[in-house]
Amino acid sequence: MNSVTPKKSLGQHFLTDQNIARKIVGSLTFQDYSAVLEIGPGMGILTGYLSALKNREIKYIEIDPYAVDYLVKKFPEIQNKIITGDILKARLNEIYTFPFAIIGNLPYNISSQIFFKILTCRNLVREVVCMVQKEVADRIISPPGSRDYGILSVFLQAFYRIERLFNVNPKVFIPPPNVISSVIRLKRNEDETLGCDESLFFRVVKTAFNQRRKILSNSLKSLVVNNNRVGDLWHCRPEQLGVQDFIRLTSVLKNSGHDRNISDC
Ligand code: SAM
């Protein structure tokens, strides 16, 4: 069987280490879901382990039609479960209408966009086990006060408990990427909602970090109604605030136009 010629434009770095692939698939907990969507199966190193799982519903989405042809020949049983398409354009809540997990060695060039997409369906996506470049993992996991802490850290930490499982050396890919990779697991937390206006929360966090160096009384001026009750936070820079601080801040700011992108599934 011919292999798939790796395309840089699609972020194709194919994992070659079976032990790592087994470990990644073995990191799915199946605690509150039984369905899984694999993003970018490529040449199918994770697919082999996923398709062998018993009593689980697994679907796949891959943008490269050559990879899809290859996969269907290699794993005929996935023929009706694989979508040829772009994860960024897919409607996740139509792929599964019930809770599910996402797994994948993500195309690094669009990994942040994939996380934003996942956030739009945060109540259906109960778990994410994925490989990303280490710097992206650092950003997602980093706590308030650190250089890497930013919009994606706050958004994801608001809804998911996140852990780094292990790092992966570039040598185990064809072709090897220029960076170290990390496998991380995001588990949906128990809070169905944040207890504040979530559209405004997204807007507040984005607005604050878009002017990262400014203190909040300057960057959030346009959203202010009453700054008395956030007095202590008001003179901080956004990277000093944890998720709960942003929630508190959101609760005392008047909604001046919603950002629907993230709150709609
Ligand atoms: N899972 C395979 C592995 O571990 O070897 C391949 C991982 S490779 C890093 C990323 C995969 O995502 C490629 O197969 C690529 O074609 C696919 N991909 C890239 N952009 C995509 C998109 N927008 N939607 C769906 N799949 C995409």
Write structural notes for this entry.
There is one protein chain. This protein has helices at residues 18-25, 45-51, 65-74, 92-95, 111-120, 134-141, 151-159, 198-210, 216-219, 231-234, 243-251, 260-263, and strands at residues 14-15, 35-39, 57-62, 82-84, 100-105, 125-133, 160-168, 173-174, 181-188. It is α/β, with parallel strands linked by helices. It folds into two domains: 8-188, Rossmann fold (3-Layer(aba) Sandwich); 198-260, Orthogonal Bundle (Helicase, Ruva Protein, domain 3). The strands form two sheets. Strands 4-3-2-5-6-9-7 form a seven-stranded mixed sheet, with helices on both faces. Strands 1-8 form a two-stranded antiparallel ribbon. The longest helix is centred in the last third of the chain and has 13 residues, at 198-210. S-adenosylmethionine binds next to β1, α2 and β3.
Topology, please?
Layout: E1 14-15, H1 18-25, E2 35-39, H2 45-51, E3 57-62, H3 65-74, E4 82-84, H4 92-95, E5 100-105, H5 111-120, E6 125-133, H6 134-141, H7 151-159, E7 160-168, E8 173-174, E9 181-188, H8 198-210, H9 216-219, H10 231-234, H11 243-251, H12 260-263
Parallel strand pairs: 2-3, 2-5, 3-4, 5-6
Antiparallel strand pairs: 1-8, 6-9, 7-9
Helix pairs in contact: 1-2, 5-7, 8-11
The protein binds S-adenosylmethionine.
